[in-house]
Specification:
Helix content: 40-55%
Strand order of the largest sheet: 4-5-6-3-7
Radius of gyration: 45 Å
Number of helices: 20
CATH architecture of one domain: 3-Layer(aba) Sandwich
CATH class of one domain: Alpha Beta
Oligomer: single chain
CATH superfamily of one domain: P-loop containing nucleotide triphosphate hydrolases
CATH topology of one domain: Rossmann fold
Distance between the termini: 154 Å
Shape: globular
Strand content: 5-15%
Amino acid sequence: MATIGLTMRVRREAMQGMLRPRAPRRSAQDNAGWRYPNGRPFRTSSSTAAENHQQHSPPPASSWSDGVAAQAIFGSLGGVFILGFGGYLYHTWYKHSVLKKMAVAFEPGYDPVLVLDKASQRVPNKPELSRPSYKTQLRDSEEAKEEDDDDDDKEGPESVEEIAWIARREQALIDQIIHGQLAGQYWLITGPKGTGKFSLIADAMTRNQADGVAVCECSDNLEIFRLRLGKCLNFEYAEDYIGGLFSRRDPREGGPLVDIERALNKLEKVAVDYHTKHLRPLILVFNNIHHLRQTDEGSYSLLLQLQQRAESWSQAGIVTFVFCSDDHWPYALLKKNAARMSVLTVKDLSKDEAVRAIRTERKKLWREDRPLHDPEIEQLWTLVGGRIAHLSAAMKHKDMIQAAKLIIEREKQWLLSRIGLIVDCDDDVMDEQKWASSSFLLMQALVKNADEAAESQNYSKGLPYSVARQVMTRTDFLSQLDHENMICIDTDYHIKPNSIVMLNVIRELCNEPDFQERLDSVLERIGDIESLGRTRELLWKSGKDGQGVLNVKLEDRPLV
């Protein structure tokens, strides 16, 4: 009941408020002196009304500096400034990181050559894994049982003498080069293929853990060479630079030569810092520079570009370049502009070194104690000489002489596939037979020179380059024969067969009964084809029925 009474009372008061008369509507001027506390107006003084009007009136129009436009402008400028400053910091950090990463490439143990050497050391050192054999399975099983019985009598793997490869006479000098002890010059290491040039360098790098040394393998493709140089120097050519996303120009637009120049510029800064700290130069090895194409303009420019850096950096003593080549043409090209270049020629093993190497390997692989003057070793030396590649292939076989003969036969068939003579050849292969016949003329002269030196028991320097030009009557064939590893041109411009194996092959071919006859036949055939090309025939017909015919032949003969 109390709730119902309260509700009726609220409704009654609400009805009274609705029926209460409202005050007339006043203007803003009439309301200037009125205030409404508790909902009821009352009159105030004029000063109080004026102050109240000023407080409740809208604020005056603000200036542009306090507006939204100014805030947007200053916010944009602040964002641009922060972005630019952040970009500058990133750019500075990136340049510093590039130099730091390149310096890591010359730290001990970084070079991939050492990684491969460590991988080879993890291979089990078991002689049976390195000695192939062509014997039958039954014979192999019998010999295996005999070897097992012999092994039981011995103490085990400790009985096998662990001897490294024979020290070369060039090793001491190469150690000084790779270890940075010889500054002020750059080096060209030449020699025929298979003499162990890079093996000497790798051995020197292993001794000091490649401290301050980097190796780059050359390629005939400049783009591939660019990538290999970047891997060698731990340089990305700004391909990982984030600022390149906002760049319109491709960093590689200038070509591989421009990228290589950028890498060398960075290397110069690293080399200066390294020389300041360690007081010795960095070593940069370019292996197999003969793979650069001799006739390619880009490869020619690349070699000259590297030589310019080698000259300036060797003068400053900050970087020593080492070029390795199997061919002669890089020496002829570099010699024109060389002022600080030194040349080292790596030759075959001498007879004493070869005999010591054979005895060591046979004891290691086959547990054979060979005497010093073993007839089989003497015969092997006569067949393959001191070329490490051929010795290594022959020593792994049980029958070394048979393996050496297989090497000679393989080399013979390869030589005939390249410069084999074709009697009564067609004019389509005349250019090839010109090269083959000229090559065999040179081969005959080389065999004659070697036989004369053997009879007089003197060391043969080879055939002089000028004499070889006259024998071949073609100067452009010599470089191709050197590139094919048929001949070897040394730095004194003397020409010899590429190896003892090649000399034995050439001697065998030139001593065949019908060789001279076939060579003369090919030379005569080439002369006849060239004569036909120089001959012009003129026919003159006369008479009503064309019975009178005059045939005139005109032949261009060289002036004597």
